[in-house]
User: Fold this.
Amino acid sequence: MSTFSPPGRLERWPVVHPLFGRMSITRGVSLLKESGIYRQVDGPSAEEIAAADVAYLGGHVYEIDAAEVAALTAGGYGAWIEEQL
Assistant:
């Protein structure tokens, strides 16, 4: 079995403080699959999630089967797949 964690985006904290202004966090980006095509969405609505064939919400880890591994790899998201031994 393999796991998939959607990509994230590195963002700086929106503060002016000299110390905390240097800090950054990784914000999860959601990945929706519609008609075999993947698209990245920041904060998808409930309607977008319901309309998608598959929804991978950012910041979560999902177990995926071999068919989804192939589909994600073909879609350019193979770097976020981890093989479980």
Remarks:
- Residues 66-74 form the longest helix (9 residues).
- Residues 2-83 form one domain.
- The chain has one domain: 2-83.
- The two ends are 8 Å apart (CA to CA).
